[in-house]
Each structure stands twice: as C-alpha cells, then as structure tokens.
Design brief:
about 375 residues; alpha+beta; Immunoglobulin-like; 3 domains; 7-stranded mixed β-sheet; 4-stranded mixed β-sheet; 15 strands
C-alpha cells in the first residue's frame, strides 16, 4: 500500500511562496454528494456534478493531502498536492472509502517514478543504499520543504534500506516546519531504534511467551548464529520466508550452530499454536499478541514484517533484515555459490540432486 501511495505522490521543486493549484476530478463509481479536500490545516469541499468535481487554491510547497466523502474521515485517498493543474480519477467504495485510480498533471511525476523504478530494478546492487542516499539527498536539497521528500525518506527508514548515519543526515536536511507531523514522529521513533540496533550494536535481551505460557529470554537460546525473526502466521510473505529459513535451520543447526528465535505477531493464540505445529517449528517460537503495539517491538523499530536481526553468541548484531540467501551465503559460502536455498518439497514431488561445483581442470590437457 505504501508503494502505491508513493507512486501516486508528487514532488515539486518550486519556491516556498504560495502558488495556485487546480484539481479536476472524475468519479468512476456512482456518487452524488460532496467531496472534501484535506491539506495542511485546511479542508475544502465541492459538490460532484455528473461524476465530476473541481478544486482550486494555493499551496506553498508539496503538501500531503487526501480526498474524502465525509468531513469526519480524512484518512482516505492520499496524494501530495503541489502547484500545478492536476487531474484525478477516483472510485468510491463502501460509501466512504476513496481510492485514487490515476493522478496526472505533475511536471515532476516522471522523476518520482524514475526514482522508484530505479530502486526496485537495482535491488540486487550491493551499493544500492549509497545510490539511494545520493539521489534522495539531491531531491531534499532542491526542496527541503517538500513533504514528499519526507515521506520518501520515511519509507527508506522504515524498510531500513539505508544506514542509520546517512538516514539521520538526510533527516537533518529536511525543513521540519513544513513536514507532515505524523511522518516526523514516525521517523523520530525509527531513527532512535536504528541508533540502538545498528550492525555492530548489542541487541537487547528480549523476552516473549512460548507455547507453554512461560517467558523465554533470547539469551537463553542464543547460539553461534541466531536469527531473531519477527513474523506472523497470517502473513503469506512471512510464511514463505520462514520455510526457507527452516531449511537452513535443518541444514546448519548442528554443524554451524545456527538457530532461530521467532516472535509471532499473532493476536489469536490458538491460531498461532496450530500454525507452528503444522509447520513443524522446532526452534524457539514465541508470541507477541499486542503485535505492533508491543513496547519491545516499538523499541526495536519493528513496524512491518517480516523483519529480522542476525546476531552472534554474545548478542552482537551481524545483519539487519537479511534474506535466506544472505544467511546461506554467510553460513556456507561455497555451497551457497552453487546451490540455492532449498525450498520445501511438495509431497510426492521428485527431488533433484543438488548441483555440484564443476572441476574445470578435469579432462583438460596441459599445454606442452
């Protein structure tokens, strides 16, 4: 959802003084009534006539805005408003939920899309964090008042896609007086958590309840390598990730001292128990029923799942949000170079033997 929001968001490099904007809108679903525009500390309204509506006004810098069909609810139909002639197509569902289907008219929309496309197309680059920092720094310096720049930085911080020091430096470049208050508060919390959970820092000795109903400290199960995994039974990407980590656990638990300490953000205890039994979880599995409201998770900056920390036997953080492939490469570099992380076999499926390194010297003739 955040990615869609950012894709629809707009960035303007105009000056700080107020400039005119217009919004010409079209409603694709049947609707008669008022449409409300929320931006900054203002709220404006207009009436939909023949599925069309129009707003006009002034805005000094790119500002977080939203469209709604009720003066009581503004948290729908998010976008970033700037001084431009915008056209928007929306759909209204369940009588109150506004969905933005398309947004056009921003001279900077192409640049925004280029940034996001670049980010995901080059996700495998080892120096991608440095490249993203450089690009975002250029955007912020051109217009530190832009709320879009703040939202984009918040996105990178949430996903821990850039190191703490660079994130803090970019945060300091923003004009705090013009940024969205919610985004600033979120970044403050996350930056504080990042400062305490950087690679090389000591991960706090957390404790959560096991299936037996007793608390279990992380320090009581730590091995040479421990993956502290934040997941949930109803999160499909999490479950897929967990199964790959499970195969690594089976392969390297005894030989390399690799173990897992799972924290499930599950509200229903019985559902959680059924899940870990069905998946055959053999490592330490704990539950955080308060989910993201749990104070321990807040202190660690866990705002989405799956998330993880890889630590050593002393609790020192070796990696943050490492992939199964990354763990495999760290535990057994030679094997990881030739064999992908094994996926869970379906019942009755034929197993293929693992690939073996090719001996390039075999059956080759030496030059005379």
């Amino acid at each position: 959802m955040r990615f869609l929001f950012l894709t629809l968001s707009l960035l303007s490099f105009g000056r700080g003084h107020s400039q005119n904007f217009t919004i010409d809108g079209n409603v694709s679903s049947p609707y008669e009534g008022k449409i409300y525009l929320w931006y900054g500390d203002k709220v404006d309204s207009t009436t939909v006539v023949n599925k069309e509506f129009r707003f006009s006004g002034e805005v000094g810098y790119p500002t977080k805005a939203s469209l709604s069909v009720s003066r009581k609810f503004k948290d729908t139909g998010f976008f970033v408003l700037e001084a431009s002639n915008l056209s928007v197509d929306i759909a209204i569902e369940n009588r109150h939920q506004v969905y933005i289907k398309s947004l056009n008219g921003s001279p900077s929309l192409t640049q925004v899309k280029d940034f996001l496309v670049y980010k995901y197309k080059n996700a495998s680059l080892s120096n991608l964090p440095e490249l993203l920092v450089a690009r975002l720094e250029t955007i912020i310096k051109q217009n530190p008042k832009s709320q879009f720049a703040g939202m984009l930085l918040s996105e990178l911080i949430t996903d821990r896609e850039i190191p703490y020091k660079q994130a803090q430096r970019l945060y300091n470049l923003l004009d705090k007086k013009t940024q969205d208050k919610e985004d600033l508060e979120k970044m403050d919390v996350l930056l504080g958590a990042m400062s305490r959970t950087q690679v090389g820092s000591q991960l706090p000795d957390i404790s959560f309840e096991t299936e037996k109903g007793t608390p279990e400290k992380l320090s009581s199960v730590r091995k040479k390598y421990t993956l502290v995994l934040f997941t949930a039974s109803d999160c499909i990407p999490c479950v897929e990730n967990d199964r790959q980590f499970a195969n690594l656990y089976k392969e390297y638990h005894r030989s390399h001292g690799f173990t897992i300490y799972s924290v499930y953000l599950d509200g229903e205890r019985n559902t959680w128990l059924d899940h870990i039994h069905r998946e055959g979880v053999r490592w330490s599995a704990t539950i955080a029923p308060k989910k993201f409201k749990d104070e321990t998770l807040k202190s660690l900056g866990i705002t989405e799942i799956p998330s993880n920390f890889l630590i050593d036997e002393n609790g020192k953080i070796l990696a943050v949000n490492i992939t199964p492939k990354g763990v495999h490469r760290g535990l057994d570099p030679e094997a990881a170079a030739y064999v992908p992380v094994p996926k869970k076999d379906k019942k009755g499926a034929k197993k293929n033997p693992p690939l073996k390194p090719v001996n390039k010297n075999k059956n080759t003739k030496k030059r005379k």
